[in-house]
Specification:
single chain, 837 residues, alpha/beta, three-stranded parallel β-sheet, 23 helices, 14% strand
Length: 837
């Protein structure tokens, strides 16, 4: 966090100066380790072993916050008798279909809950829509409120007891043997973190790509959620799980997504099939009878009205049929493989540099060479724009530029100081930035490019009136433009995102004002309230008040700084303690109040109990803080929504130096996709040709793939050359001197780098054997002021099953002294002798 999120880390330092303890769990000793109280080096890819042992430590030592866990989590919920755990089935959960290689998630439902049924939300059809409900067993969200509970947590099939059984073998001894963390170090870290619990104390967990970029990364984060729920650290000040974002607005690019499978505000993109035949079929699929997602009809209809304006009417399902359908895997990894297979003609690349930043970058460059056209919008000529004449493949003589058919269009882009707009940062805070200077020459903003491209495409569509163009022509594309460069007015875009009443254009005050009848339009329901009245751009507010900073920017939703903050009060509505109070029930005014905007219906009393036929938010009791879940609980057990299990289980990375010590018959996540094919091969696990564990990481001095830093002299000179980190012990074993050239080889590729021999990399004892780890930064490429080999050439294209991210930590490599050109024969022998696939 100190290395890659230094601005946010200032608050960690401030907390430490006030007495907080900082624990850093990371294979490498970094600036974070240097200022932390405890550093825990461990084997990359063994995270769930370590986290599972922490969960076990909490349970075995009765350190969980019972007064929080029982009312606020699903620990007391009973699971059906026919459920089987990975402990019963040697590494897989019940519901596994070996032929289809997928799970039937209905086996993970609560006892007393029926599998999902058609029309389960009980709302009826959207008013005026002709769609009705589909037949053939369309399924919606199950009614999780019909569960059975044991408030004593003693029932053998309650979530709490299943959790205890599931992690029983995740012992400190297992951590010592297979994570490489000594028992004493583990127990010290566990004791220290578990003190951050109870009415008077909280603790936070911060993570970034060190967790996400694994073949079981989502379940690593699930471990953190379980741990924090057990300790009572969710929804409370000083608690939570912070997903640290590596760019200024990565949070914004998921809220209003650049992802293929979600719509703005985390609405699901419709999938091809029954669920998308009609708008009401979609609503039944993704709505819930209780909880806040009961309102999905209001949000999707308002989004469609924002997209299609007057063309979106009840009679045509508000233009729902114009939305694209997900027909398969359209992720970055999958469409690059399609590109390699000649299934794609063209590509827009804006703010990315996949020629060096993508997994198996060499393979991705080969994909670029099969396109007919490529548009790159950038502030500099990146490697993606210059691959056809500057890539390693060209320099080695593998390609001739004149034989590459891809036509490349490099369009100059404006920088962040040259355009108006918002960033949404790690804490969900929208902050408006004002244009400081005009962009030079032909440089233009993204708003300009997309708007004027849309104008041209719509003009072309008008000249060719095919039915397929109806959605494009229906788009609301009437933004005001200003200045000689005809720039769209960015505040108008933010107003559309905020939402407005269709009849008169009046801005809505927030998402609770949105309707399902087509009378409101809203570009992203969770952002609604950022521009509640004309002239009031709350993202541009700069008058912070109080500890939580209200008045500085706008945190979605509704300027809440801490999500699920109902949990910051006891079930009866009183604060857990004076020191940790955040929101509470005011018994005189009969409202929720406090230091933050309550993430709860302000008039719902703590003792409210829903009638049997209650729906939506009214279907959740007054002591259920997690209003987006249809049962109102924090989910220790995930009954629906994940592809690979209701609880995290330890699986080894797709390449590993050991066999899985927990589940010998199930080496890797059964749903992870290796995408193995020629050019994307894997080593065996273990593999004598590739004995070392490798991870990629970022440096403070460079920005991701280097396009914004290797072109700036004052940053380039701080980290001028590609290197890899190795321990002194490994350097001695291989006779490598500090600063010497070494070649790093994986089953996919080979690169050269300077050896940084440092005790920051520790030798670990794993399964009775010494295991070395090698650290590889990924900032260099063949363009810019400083150049170097490409770390991501070593990484495989792979997919975690829930979010389809690649694995960049815990893979296997080898090191050879000398530069790559000196080691071609040795490289070939290693890759020919690998035992993998």
């Amino acid at each position: 966090m100190a290395e890659n999120h230094p601005v946010a880390f200032q608050w960690v330092i401030e907390a430490r100066e006030r007495g907080a303890k900082v624990l850093h769990v990371d294979p490498r000793f970094s600036r974070t380790s240097a200022v932390g109280d405890i550093w825990v080096p461990f084997r990359a890819g063994s995270d769930i072993l370590f986290l599972g042992a922490l969960i076990r430590y909490v349970l075995v030592n009765e350190l969980f916050f019972r007064e929080y866990v029982v009312p606020y989590t699903n620990a007391s919920v009973i699971i059906p008798e026919d459920f089987k755990d990975t402990e019963d089935l040697e590494g897989i959960f019940s519901g596994w279909d070996a032929n289809r290689q997928t799970y039937d998630e209905t086996t993970w439902l609560y006892e007393g809950v029926e599998p999902m049924k058609a029309t389960s939300t009980g709302r009826g059809a959207v008013e005026g829509s002709h769609g009705g409900h589909t037949e053939h067993g369309l399924h919606g969200m199950p009614d999780l409120c019909s569960h059975h509970r044991d408030l004593t947590l003693q029932h053998p099939r309650c979530v709490f007891q299943l959790l205890r059984k599931h992690f029983a073998r995740y012992t400190p001894e297992m951590v010592e043997h297979y994570c490489g963390v000594s028992k004493s170090v583990f127990l010290n870290a566990a004791r220290t973190f578990c003190t951050a619990s109870g009415p008077e104390k909280t603790g936070a967990i911060c993570y970034a790509l060190g967790w996400t970029q694994h073949s079981n990364g989502v379940q690593m984060i699930r471990c953190a959620a379980i741990l924090q729920l057990l300790l009572g650290n969710m929804g409370r000040p000083g608690g939570g799980i912070l997903a640290l974002r590596g760019h200024a607005s990565i949070q914004g690019s998921t809220d209003i997504p650049t992802l293929y499978d979600i719509l703005p505000g985390y609405l699901s993109m419709p999938r091809f099939g029954e669920e998308s035949n009609t708008l009401n079929a979609y609503i039944e699929k993704y709505g819930s009878r209780t909880g806040w997602w009961y309102n999905v009809d209001k949000y999707i209809v308002s989004l469609l009205r924002a997209y299609y304006g007057e063309s979106a009417q009840p009679e045509n399902d508000f233009g729902f049929h114009w939305l694209p359908r997900v027909t398969g895997d359209h992720s970055h990894q999958a469409y690059w493989l399609d590109m390699l297979d000649g299934k794609m003609d063209g590509l827009f690349v804006m703010g990315q540099n996949p020629a060096v930043a993508g997994p198996n970058s060499g393979m991705e460059r080969r994909g670029l060479a099969k396109l007919k056209w490529l548009v790159v919008r950038e502030m500099v000529e990146t490697e993606t724009a210059s691959f056809w004449h500057e890539s390693p493949e060209v320099k080695r003589g593998d390609w001739r530029p004149e034989e590459i058919q891809t036509e490349v269009f490099l369009l100059p882009a404006a920088g962040h100081a040259e355009k108006d707009g918002t960033f949404t940062n790690t804490q969900r805070l929208l902050q408006w930035r004002q244009k400081a200077v005009e962009p030079p020459g032909d440089c233009r903003s993204e708003n300009w490019f997309i708007y004027h491209l849309g104008v041209l495409l719509r003009e072309k569509a008008r000249r060719d009136p095919q039915p397929r163009h109806a959605g494009l022509l229906a788009l609301t594309w009437d933004y005001s433009i200003e200045g000689e460069r005809r720039e769209p007015v960015a505040e108008e875009v933010l107003q559309e995102i905020n939402g407005y009443k269709v009849a008169d254009g009046e801005l809505v005050p927030g998402y609770t004002a949105l309707k399902a009848d087509g009378s409101t339009a809203c570009g992203c329901w969770i952002y609604s309230g950022v521009f509640p009245t004309a002239g009031e751009n709350r993202a541009n507010h700069r008058a912070a008040k109080g500890f939580y900073g209200h008045g500085w920017g706008f945190a979605w939703p509704s300027d809440r700084r801490i999500l699920y903050n109902r949990a910051s009060a006891r079930p009866d509505g009183r604060p857990w303690s004076e020191r940790k109070k955040l929101v509470w029930w005011d018994f005189e005014s009969r409202k929720w109040t406090g230091l933050d905007v309550p993430d709860f219906t302000v008039t719902k009393s703590p003792d409210y109990q829903p009638p049997e036929d209650a729906v939506g938010d009214e279907g959740l009791a007054g002591d259920k803080p997690c209003l987006l879940h249809c049962d109102g609980f924090g989910w220790i057990w995930v009954p629906v929504g994940l592809a690979d299990g209701p609880l995290p289980a330890h699986y080894e990375p797709l390449e590993s130096p050991i066999r899985n010590p927990i589940y010998p018959k199930q080496q890797t996540n059964p749903l992870a996709s290796s995408k193995a094919r020629p050019g994307n091969e894997y080593a065996a696990s273990p593999d004598t040709h590739f004995p070392f564990v490798m991870m990629t990481y970022r440096l403070t001095e460079h920005h991701t793939a280097g396009g914004m830093s290797r072109t700036l002299p004052h940053l380039a000179e701080l980290q001028p050359e590609m290197f890899c980190e190795t321990s002194p012990e490994l350097a001695r074993d291989l006779s490598i001197s500090p600063g010497e050239w070494v070649t790093i080889v994986t089953a996919r590729g080979a690169i050269e780098a300077h050896a940084l021999v440092t005790s920051r990399m520790k030798v670990l004892t794993i399964g009775g054997k010494r295991v070395h780890q090698v650290g590889v930064p990924f900032h260099w490429g063949y363009s810019g002021l400083v150049k170097g080999d490409i770390g991501n050439d070593l990484i495989a294209i792979s997919e975690e099953p829930n979010v389809r991210i690649m694995e960049t930590k815990g893979l296997l490599c080898n090191l050879i002294r000398g530069k790559r050109a000196e080691n071609l024969e040795a490289i070939d022998k290693l890759r020919e002798g690998q035992g993998g696939r």
